[in-house]
Amino acid sequence: MKKNLIIIFVALFGLLQAQDLKVPAKLKELTEESLRNFPKMHSLDEAVNLNSLKVDMSRAAYLPIVNADASYLHLNPVSKVTIPIGAGISKSLQMNPDDNYSATLSLVQPLIDLKTPANTDKAKSDLSVSLTNKEALKAQLAYQIAQVYYGIIYLNRCINVQQMQLTLVRSTLKLIEARLKSGDALKYDLVSTQVRYTNVENYISELRSQLSKQYNLLGMLTGQASNQQSIADSTFNDSYLDIVKDSLQTEILNMNNDIRIAEAKKVYSESDISAVKRLYLPSLNLIGGIGYKNGIAPEIYDTKFNYYYGLSFSLPIFPASRPHIQLEMAQVGLRLAQNELDFQKLSVSKDIANALDDIQKNQKKYASMDTLLQQASLAVELGTERFKEGVITSVELLTAETNYQDALLSKLQTEYNLLLSKLELSRLAGKRWW
């Protein structure tokens, strides 16, 4: 496993130069809109706030507990003692008043609490999980926006290629119509070319439908209704696939968001075990109080100032929380977290290898595209001249035009696939560009 990871890292850093990703300003703007407006981002913000409060709550166990209590109690009967005082005379001594009043301000201050540090660490681990989830969602949104952004560029360029093809077929139609009038062409040639023209028109309509869906997805991700024409005119038609030249510099297995989430969950499980183990530990508290009450001899009916202070020690023997069961549950949770982490590392390693393979394949394919395109363009030029001279048929000319169109689309598709492979590799590396 380690050997495979070393091979992957060597291949990665040999392929990509150390520099920051460069993306268009419009892409960053759209990403920022998505991070501001996407509803799930707000949910994770609240989750972070909630877990931050849990950390504060766990630390509050160190703070003193102060209570103000007031009570009234009527007793009947009350304890009385009759005491003889001589010469047949006795006196009745009442031990408690009939009406008892008390007002006390009490304090409990933890002096030694061995459970709180572990509970605080557990709360911090939970906060770390929520923060990592938030960052992972940001990355997911950013790269989804990038895919839609460049997908729109790709579809616009495909439409441009098809429109060029439409222009070529239209020119061929005019040539065939002229030759048909002079008797140098067959009606079959005209019909075949018209069918080709209709097919290209239908394909353009399909591409425009896909483009509309991409804009709808963009609007959903950014929370903004996108004006297709204004965005296309101002941004996408003039954008280039700059990211195919960009690079990464990071240790993927340390920065990948899925792995970071799994590691955060593992740390939380470890802190959960630590917190459970401390449920058996004792605690020592300082206690005290001041107040006023009646019932204090000898003037039991007078309300008098009083106070108390002392220490309180507590050692759990068989606590109601059943720590041994909680410990078993926490250990199972840790094993699950470790298995998830191992799986994520294997999965990411596989995805890295696939992305590198795709990049290498598309780079080799893209390197031959210009030659293929030049050959196809020359074939169209020669075919057009030969068709005018009546040397070839319209079917042969259409074949040359179709090959040229396929070469254009193949180059565009390869360029787009190379970009997506780069995007995937940068996503796996946890590369942040927004």
Q: How much helix, percentage-wise, in residues?
A: 55-70%
Strand order of the largest sheet: 1-4-5-6
| CA-atom Rg in angstroms | 40 Å
Please trace the helix and strand order, writing H or E for each element.
HHHEEEEHHHHHEEHHH
Cα separation of the termini: 33 Å
Structural class: alpha+beta
On the 0 to 100 scale, the average pLDDT is 83
Q: How many strand units?
A: 6
SS element count, helices: 11
Unreliable parts: 1-19, 229-250
Content of β-strand: 5-15%
What kind of assembly state do the chains in view correspond to? Answer: single chain
Global geometry = rod-shaped
Main sheet: strands, sense, barrel = 4 strands, antiparallel
Task: Give the helix/strand layout.
Elements: H1 2-15, H2 25-37, H3 39-59, E1 65-74, E2 80-86, E3 89-94, E4 99-113, H4 116-181, H5 187-222, H6 228-234, H7 252-255, H8 257-277, E5 283-293, E6 304-314, H9 323-367, H10 369-388, H11 394-428
Antiparallel strand pairs: 1-4, 2-3, 4-5, 5-6
